[in-house]
Structures are given as structure tokens and as C-alpha cells.
Amino acid sequence: MGKETGFLEVDRQDRTYADPKERLTHYREFVIPHDEDKLQLQASRCMNCGIPYCHNGCPVNNIIPDWNHLVYEGDWQNALEILHSTNNFPEFTGRVCPAPCEASCTLNITDQPVTIKSIECAIIDRGWKEGWVQPQPPKEKTGKSVAVVGSGPAGMACAQQLARAGHSVTLFEKSDRIGGLMRYGIPDFKMEKSLINRRAVQMEAEGVTLRTSTEVGVDVSMKSLKENFDAIVLSGGAEDARPLQIPGAELPGVRLAMEFLTQQNKRVAGDSEERAAPRGSLTATGKHVIVIGGGDTGSDCVGTSNRQGAASVTQIEIMPKPPEMEDKLLTWPDWPMKLRTSTSHEEGVDRDWAVLTKEVVGEDGKVTGLKCVRADWSNGKLEEVPDSEFVLKADLILLAMGFVGPRKAGVVEQSGVKLTDRGNVDADTVAYRTSDEQIWACGDMRRGQSLVVWAIREGRQCAASVDEALMGATQLPR
The pTM is what? Predict the structure, then answer.
């Protein structure tokens, strides 16, 4: 694979980014990709390692060494075909996936993993540019119909696979555009939404019917779906945000991260302020912003706040600060827990760890600060550090503390399916079937809050299960 001595001759060199001062002036993507020659050099580093742990590190089991080798040889079109064989939407994962495949790369033992994510993104971007990505409509129809509820990456992948198998697929989405939280939760500076739009065009050409602004459980009942479709797939995501349960959390300056991010994404899409923010504008302009939650959503709030012109941005996390580097002998090839600094963090933010919130401070009905204490995790459980109380100045507090599962009102309640102890729809990863034989579930609605790449995997596997149940056998890959 690649060049036998490539990993010895070529150092890892990943994509670069536009200067923070420049990129803070807009919401466009700011990654500076490699040219073809540099990409081929980077692909040459994929060594013949015998057991490619990157296969298992990648949730969709991308055949990474094969397409790395084809890029090294300049055979980009075949590289794209192999890439698409396991991943319906590599342009999504090539931008927003945290790349667990690179953590599993054999060369990561010496902190020099192959730039898998960059090469993946380059393959699909070239595929679109060259016109190699085309609709794949089925040669014949099966006469079976499937309703897919929720158009995030799991629903999109499931719907596309089922349509290619010949089923009549209707993809229901409660929002005005498809994409789920991938469209409205991920800022455009990380992934421009034209990427979703062109996939929507492809899926329609393959036979998928897109029904946006249609909430199942509200505009259309589950009873109606069961009467009119042979199978139903629940892929609505995990949208029930974890609340902040401290005094003062009810003040109007305490808002959910997804409300904040969705509004800005709609503005970027060209929506009027009335359409983007029907319940009132939420912006960070001129405000002292505190983001509670140290994950990707919190990072996205940081980048968006800085672009809106916040006076200051502080991000706090209840867990202790991770180590700068992992213990390779202990963690590799598994995903390591270590300090991660995003491009949004590099644009300007004060970060703090092991911080427990105690009270939202307000005056005249407005947020003025956040009272906190230091958290001690040394005994393996959360304990407050005595006499460590402090107050952070704040005008706006954004809650990015994760999600506790799918929303129950509407589609979940009407479906009557069994739930897990954590409140997710109960279905295994073999059949993806729920307690109702007509209903399947995949993605975050089934597994809980997770990654785009895991959603794509589950959508594909769920489609294979549905196809097999409807037809007695399936040729769809899992």
C-alpha cells in the first residue's frame, strides 16, 4: 500500500487554515486544501501495516488503505468509488468528523498518523468537481414503500440506500430544509450547506421524496404512516437538550446552544430575521458570553459568538482538564481522551475546566453573571472545593451540555415503541427493529447523542435490515 518507505521519507502535513483575523469576518469554510502533488505524497505515507486498525477506528469501516493507495497512484475516480462503497456522504465526514481513524492509524504511535480525513475530503471534492458523482436510480421498483422520519445524516443515508434498492421512499423533516442538526447545528464555517443541498438534489433524482416542514406526530400522525407505508424508520436524532438546573436558569439571558446556532445558520442561508428568529433575535454582539459545555457544540458557539462580535467569550467544562497527550501504550488504537483545541478556540476564548455552576446572577430580570465553584474529581466523584466560589461576568449564557435523548412528544409517543433506560428508542444494531415490527430506528434517536459518521453507519445498516425484511434478502452493504 502506498510507497513502502513513504512514511519514513515524508512527514505528516495536514491542511492549513486561513488567518483567524480574516476568517472571523465571514461564515464561509476557511480550510486551505493541499494541491494534488502534496496529497499524493501524504497518501504515500499509508504503510503496509499488516493489520489496518483504521478500518475499525472508522465507524463506517472505510477501506482507507485502498483509496490512499489509489490517490498515491493518481487514480482518483476509483478512489472515489471505493470511498462511496462504505460512506454515502464523505464530504460531511471529511469536514466534521473527529477522525477516530487517524487515532487508530499505526503511525499515530509516533504522533504521525496519515492525513486520512484530508485525503477523504479531497477525493469527494474532486469527484463533485469532475462530475463523477451522479444519481444512482434503481433499475426497477419493488412496489414497497418506506417512510423515513428525520433527515439528519442517519435519515439521509437510510433513505438513499433504500431508494437505490428500488423502494419508494419518503423522507419527512419537520424543519424547512433537510439535514437535521447537521444543517442547523453545525456552523457554515465548518461545513457549508450547499454540500447538503446538492446531495438532496441527487437523492430526489434517485427517487426519494422530500417532505420538509412536515412534523410527524403533529402534521402527520404515526397512525397515518403505518396505514400508508410498508415500513417506517425513526431517525429523528437526539434533540432533548440537557437543562441547567440551578437558581436563575429561567432568566431570558440563559439560552440553548441549538437555538443560538440555528438562528445564525438561517441568517447565513439568506433567511429574513423574522424567519430566522421568529421568537426574537438571539445574538452575542457586544455581550460577555459564557458557554457551558466543553464539546463540539460549545466550540461552535465560541466561533459563532466571536463572528457576531462578542465582548468576551468564556467556555467552561465541569470535567477536569484532559492531559495534553495520551498514554499510547494504554489507549492506542482506541480513541484517546486528551486536550483538543478547535479552530474556534484558536480564534479567541478563555477556557476553564473543573468548574461547577451554582447560580445565575441577575439584576432587573437580566443576566449579569454566573456564580461557580471549583470541582474536585480526585476521589473519582464530584466534590466542591471549599472556599473556591467565584463569579464570571455574563450577559448571555449558552447551554451546550449535550442531549439526553430524543424528544418524546409527538412521533416517539405516538409510535408506542419501547424505550431504553436512557430514554432512547430501543433497537439493536443487528436488525435495528423496534418493539413494533413495522418500525425501525437508527442514529442518535437509537444510540443517543453521537457523531455524524456513526449516524451514517447506522442509517446504512438500518436500510439493509429494512430491505431484507421487505424483500426476504438484501444486496445492500452493511
Answer: 0.96
Per-residue pLDDT of 71-84, as tens digits, reads 999 999 999 999 99
Mean pLDDT of 85-105: 98
Q: What is the dihedral of CA 146, 150, 155, 156, to 10 degrees?
A: 100
| pLDDT per residue as tens digits for the range 336-363 | 999 999 999 999 999 999 999 999 999 9
CB 296 within 8 A of CB 181: no
Distance CA 330, CA 317 (A): 25
Q: Is the pLDDT of residue 86 over 90?
A: yes
- Which cell numbers hold the place of 268? 447565513
Q: Is the dihedral of CA 309, 310, 314, 318 positive or negative?
A: negative
In the numeric block, the cell 435519515 is attached to 155
C-alpha cell at 329: 501504550
pLDDT in tens, 413-459: 999 999 999 999 999 999 999 999 999 999 999 999 999 999 999 99
The residues, ordered by sequence, that sit 6+ positions from 361 with a Cβ below 8 Å of its Cβ are 248, 367, 368, 369, 370, 371, 391, 394
> How far, CA to CA in Å, does 445 sit from each of 88, 133, 244, 404, 405?
20, 29, 22, 10, 7
Residue 154 to residue 157: CA distance in whole angstroms: 5
Report the distance separating Cα 290 and Cα 305, nearest Å.
10
Q: Would you say 298 and 291 are in contact if contact means Cβ atoms under 8 Å apart?
A: yes
The Cα 108–Cα 111 span in angstroms is 4
pLDDT at 478: 81
Q: Distance between CA atoms of 432 and 68, rounded to whole angstroms?
A: 32
DSSP conformation letters of 226-255: HHH-SEEEE------BPP--STTTTSTTEE
Report d(CA 230, CA 167) in Å as an integer.
Answer: 10
Q: Buried b / exposed e across 164-183, counting CB within 10 Å, b at 16+?
A: bbbbbbbbbbbbebbbbbbb
How far is the C-alpha of 109 from the C-alpha of 107, rounded, in Å? 5
Contact of 235 with 459, CB cutoff 8 Å: yes
Q: CA-to-CA distance for 339 and 264, rounded, in angstroms?
A: 28
